[in-house]
């Protein structure tokens, strides 16, 4: 047991180092961008597009912040804006698919997923969900009530304080990553050595098989579902290396996780906004299953066509 814990600890350190080299500079740059004209410019640029989703121009603020930063930044912005229940639900749904894009897209590349696939899946789902909800849902015109949550507004002035704050934000991201990844990697190493992960893989086999993936993808899928793309990346990277998960399977898994990841945190985080979170979760899960099934079918047909062409050529 001690040997397993030690091995998992060092695997965790290597994972934190590999991800930290990506997350720290990205988080630092994005934190600095908040104090430049860049984010206001992007917000101004996308404001005219908000109407097609049934959103007011102000809704561009949380959408841009959520995609550049994370859900917490987006929710902080939403608490300062007068929005309807329908607008809050649409924003929450769009951001559940598409958020923290810079960090999580770089993580996707690290796992072995092509950037264009990661961006197309997540942004496409966000746009599609926003359009459909706006067209289908006719209610929700009452003002949103934000419960007991109070928005915090703190202004930092001067380049040195801004730089210090950005550095602290980036370091906090690494600390949070370490707090999750280290115990997680230790636990997974112990489970592997005790052969429990093999049992878990067998339990998950019908699910992964239905979604068009092999049994060895179960750890990758579970890590993303529970911990999300950024925090689950350590397990996903390790699973790809050690379990021999193919590029096809990791891509399909990522497409599924684009729609449905960090199901606990990303669902509960929207509760203070006063929206129904169960439909939020169910829509994400349903879209994940449908999208993955369609992509798998298309992939299989493409592979069949290639094999057929190869046979004719010979």
Written account of the structure:
The protein is mainly alpha-helical and 314 residues long. It has one domain (2-313). 74% of the residues lie in helices and 0% in strands. The protein has 14 helices and no strands. It is globular, with a radius of gyration of 21 Å. The termini are far apart. The model is unreliable at 148-152 (pLDDT under 50).
SSE run: HHHHHHHHHHHHHH
From the helix content, strand content and strand pairing, which structural class follows? mainly alpha
Please compute the radius of gyration using only Cα atoms.
21 Å
How many strands, which pairing sense, and closed or not: the largest β-sheet? none
* Total beta strands: 0
Rounded mean pLDDT score: 80
List the total number of helices.
14
Percent in strands: under 5%
Backbone shape: globular
Pick out the low-confidence regions: 148-152
Which percent range fits the helix content? over 70%
* Distance, first to last CA: 55 Å
What is the oligomeric state here?
single chain
Q: How many domains is the backbone divided into?
A: 1
